[in-house]
Amino acid sequence: MGTWFIILIVFCLIIFMWYVHDKYVQRTHQILVNYPIIGRLRFVFQEFREPFRQYFGDEKFYESMDKLDWVYSASRDKVNFSSFSPSQPLPKPKFMLRHVNIVLNDNEVDDDFSVTFGEKREKPFVASSIIGRAPMSDGSISPEGTRAFVYGAQRGNFPINSGEGGLTSNFFVTHYNYDKNYMQVVRGNSFIYRVFKLAKFFFNEPVAIDFYRKMIFKGNQEADTYVFNKDKKCFYRPNWNAPLENFPKEVPADMPDIILQISSGLYGVRDKDGNFDMERYKKQMSFCKMTEIKLAQGAKQTGGKLVAEKVTPSIAYYRNIEAHKDLFSPNRFPYATSNEELFDFIGTLQEASGKPVGIKIVVSDYDNIVPIAKEIKRRIPLNLPFPDYISIDGGSGGSATAPLEMMERIGMDIRDALYLVDKVLKDYGVREHIKISASGKILTPDDVVITLCLGADFVQIARGFMMSAGCIRARYCSGATKHQCPVGLATQDIKKRRHYFVQKHSNYVKNYHNNILKSMKSLLAVMGLKNVKELNKEKLIFLDIDSIIHDDMDALFERRISLKK
Prior knowledge:
With 565 residues, this protein is α/β, with parallel strands linked by helices. The chain contains 19 helices and 18 strands. The strands form five sheets. An eight-stranded parallel sheet has the order 4-16-15-14-13-10-9-5. Strands 1-17-18 form a three-stranded antiparallel sheet, with helices on one face. Strands 6-8-7 form a three-stranded antiparallel sheet, covered by helices on one side. A hairpin with a 5-residue loop joins strand 17 and strand 18 (549-550). Helix 5 (65-75) crosses helix 18 (502-526), helix 12 (366-379) packs parallel to helix 14 and helix 15 packs across helix 18 (502-526). The mean pLDDT is 89.
């Protein structure tokens, strides 16, 4: 009996040490922090996925499981080659890329992937990359997740869209060289700092920072609105109450290129009564390169939605709303009862910021884009304001919170919508005045190339960047069920998100972007193109479900989009 008791004690001790190791010591596997020991079952099942792919591994929502594997491998900077054949070939119908017999070498393809928005503005936005992280709000995404994306965007030199949650403190995590005139700075005394260093020695830096934050802010519910400055060992956040003249005249060099999105809720640029605050907008644009007005997105044609569980005191602080209550924005943008009113409001923002301003829409038919094209054509000779770019989202469902009945019933597929918008703008003679951004189920380099061929100047990716940042597609993003995002990326659950690996995943985010561009160069090389700007619809062919090849894209889309003119 004594022997079995000793064995039981040893067994329990081992389990306890294993638990402590997974949750508080190891920093390799994100899932094990929130699910010590039992989380290892995921890796066991993952090992069975490949040999049992034909039974359990088929991917139905995306084109193939191979595309998802590409994203995960690219984010980890692994060699992305396949052996023998694809595990799950792309289904027909599908677009194909034309190649040439005398191909180029990769080093003969131009490294310039830049695109310029608002050439006529006082401060045009020259994006270093044609790929940006699509809008995902700080609120739908955890604070730690937002920080990972911001670090990744700054290190990878690509734009990041704020999402409708506005410019929160987490977008400033790379901005250490700030002026105290527009920042609020809080630091602990010498004793608290020594405790912080001790915690850092025994555990790891994120755990120590979390401990340091609790000691300094104690019960302050807005503690999460401050981010940590490693150089100065203090916490800081923008002081939006500081005078406008205290804010920088140029975007600080240590911040990523941020696109400020404004939605129907006007979050980040509203006063406490919900009205547009021009001075607050100017302050935020001190740190942003251009503005996007969100009229609609693919997952929902309604205003943004955050369930009460995600409306923390910090989110309430950022958005000037009440905490712990469902946050459902109005369906219609308040300054868009007509295209004329919307374009005049765009002109107000362009004049106030001196920077480009665009709109985000979803397209169902000609009636969604023709009135916009007509109004732009009318305004150009009159020198009246109009959008610098149009961002088009595909009609498919997305992350966060969206009504199921809208996810697959509203809006065209991004490729059909993109072709239609590009064609209509050309038919009305205004295409050269407008840039087009596209998003919707774009994951891999071939997706980006096809999207650019169909008329996009810029591509915004959400799902791919989510997966690169650790998303395992558990589909618990909304927080509306008893389950929360298990990796801490798309949740405000403090137990889940506080152990998210910010720095590790920020490098994955950077790698994913860089490997897309690297592989795009290889595709351009076999297509015989020296620059990404040479892509057009003539570089595509289409294989239909009956294996019939179509090489006239205009004729193809005329049949695909058979609409009343």
